[in-house]
Design a protein that fits this description.
The chain is about 35% helix and about 30% strand. With about 230 residues, the protein is α/β, with parallel strands linked by helices. Helix 5 runs parallel beside helix 6. The structure holds adenosine-5'-triphosphate and magnesium ion (MG). Magnesium ion binds next to helix 1. The site of adenosine-5'-triphosphate has 11 residues, from strand 1 and helix 1.
Length: about 230
């Protein structure tokens, strides 16, 4: 792809956690490369390191050794400030617990990433973009509502709009349907798939839902610290 900018490179990514003087190996020299516009699913047993790997890809954490590169830029070599700036500009996150800010309206929640990314845009154009995104997840009429008035599925659709608000290179989703019933989960999943595909973005999703496997481009399994394609 000529304008492929969301390439993810994992180069011998290793993560140890230190606890009470002992080191536990969670990720063991993981190397992989993902192109653009791919829907990648990460499977594995509880405790296998899925969230750890997702957080490393998203720059929320750093590996013990090895390197994570996005679009050829090493997250690992950045200092904390540089990584935070990069994260705000280039990643969208969707979490199991929605993580909307309760004191902000739905619309303000979706506006936040663009404001944090320091986009040189007027408030009114950021607001318009947020409203367009809310329309795309079917929630424009709830723009001025506070998140606690929404159902779980609605909150997650707001979180999807928010994840796309800074026009990210990569969208990362950690069990986005984990708190939803099966039918609502399916809707949220389809929406996430459709919107990221439309925008040609990489979507990396951690899930236990076997249903996702059918619509993903790549299915990866974490086991004993290693990543297996399946
Ligand atoms: N901050 C931390 N300090 C110490 N150990 C940690 C820390 N974070 C995670 N771990 C350990 O690393 C391992 C992998 O955790 P991780 O959260 O990545 O698993 P997971 O595959 O996402 O599991 P789940 O499906 O239950 O969410 C677990 O054994 C966990 O206890
Ligand atoms: Mg997890």
């Amino acid at each position: 792809m000529g304008n492929c900018r969301g390439m993810i490179t994992l180069d011998r990514v290793t993560k140890y956690y230190e606890e009470a003087g002992t080191r536990r190996l969670v990720l063991d020299h993981i190397s992989a490369e993902f192109g653009c516009g791919e829907f990648i699913v990460l499977l594995g047993k509880s405790g296998s390191g899925k969230s750890t790997l997702l957080n490393l890809i998203g720059g929320l954490d750093t590996p013990t050794s090895g390197e994570v590169l996005i679009d050829g830029q090493s997250l690992t070599r950045m200092n904390d400030h540089q990584r935070t700036v990069f994260r705000r500009q280039h990643f969208g996150f969707v979490f199991q617990a929605f993580n909307l800010i309760p004191t902000l309206t739905v619309e303000e929640n979706v506006m936040l990433p663009a404001e944090l990314a320091g986009a040189r845009l007027s408030t009114s154009s950021i607001r318009q973009h947020a409203r367009d995104l809310l329309a795309s997840v079917g929630l424009l009429e709830r723009a001025n509502t506070f998140p606690d008035r929404l159902s779980g599925g609605e909150q997650q659709r707001v979180a999807i709009a928010r994840a796309l608000a800074n026009d990210p290179l990569v969208v990362l989703a950690d069990e986005p349907t984990g708190n939803l019933d099966a039918e609502t989960g399916k809707r949220v999943l389809d929406l996430l798939d459709q919107l990221t595909r439309q925008a040609g973005k990489n979507l990396v999703m951690v899930t236990h839902s076997e249903e996702v496997i059918g619509i993903a481009d790549r299915v990866l399994r974490l086991r004993d610290g290693r990543l297996a394609m399946s």
